[in-house]
Amino acid sequence: MSGDVRFTVTRTLSKEQQARRERLIEAARMLALEGGYPAVTMHDVADRAGVARATVYRYFATKDHLLTEVAASWAQRVTADIDALAVGDTPVERLTALLERIVRAGAEQIPLASAIVQAVTSDDSSVEDDRTVLFLFLRDRLAAAIGDPVPERDQVEIVLGHVLLAALVSLTSLSTPVDEVAAMVRDAGRLVLAGAIAGQNAEAGAGAGAGAGA
Predict the structure, then answer these.
(1) Is there a contact between 124 and 59 (Cβ–Cβ < 8 Å)?
(2) Is 136 within 8 Å of 1 (Cβ atoms)?
(3) Structural domains of the chain, with CATH
(4) What is the pTM of this model?
(5) At what angle do helices 110-120 and 91-108 cross, to 10 degrees?
(6) d(Cα 52, Cα 192) in Å, to the nearest integer?
(7) Are the CB atoms for 69 and 24 separated by under 8 Å?
(8) What is the pLDDT of residues 164-178, one digit of tens each?
(9) Are residues 38 and 111 in contact, defined by beta-carbon separation less than 8 angstroms?
(10) Beta carbons of 42 and 54 less than 8 angstroms apart
(11) Which helix (H) or strand (E) is 114 found in, with range?
(12) For residues 149 and 146, what is the distance between their CA atoms, to the nearest angstrom?
């Protein structure tokens, strides 16, 4: 999956429609940045974007649907310069650098991060498809950071995605200090990769032992 992801593909949009849609996303982002989840209403988004309220619903079924698109836009911005962010000579160094970057970006914009977390964890059915695409995008970014082949990498990426979500919840809902959360994701990245590699080595050793005993 490439880094150039289109998060809502329900129909082909004209340039004018695409610009209007992006304006709505930006309006919602700014409202969330100013006042968190409660500050984002479809009415206020419409006013901020300079469109009729009905126009918002032509593009986004619900507030959580719109904020999930805000989350997608935020994720793309935070990880846009993946090569510069995921620094280091080893998969662990690159991965932990990226994980920490996402955490610190969230900590810099707590109201926005809080709104994003509430939206993407919503049970609103209109969120499901975009949430799946968002999580797949983040998995793609994690895979790019890891770089080298890793045993059971699909499972590694899924686990790390849950770690990131837990980290953002810790920042926004539990008010955990950012340095503590950053340390948590660094440790998680190291442990998950080490566990996957150790498991592969154990399997290889068991296979060699069985072959020798045959």
Answers:
(1) no
(2) yes
(3) 64-213 (1.10.357.10)
(4) 0.83
(5) 110
(6) 48
(7) no
(8) 999 999 999 999 999
(9) no
(10) no
(11) helix 110-120
(12) 8
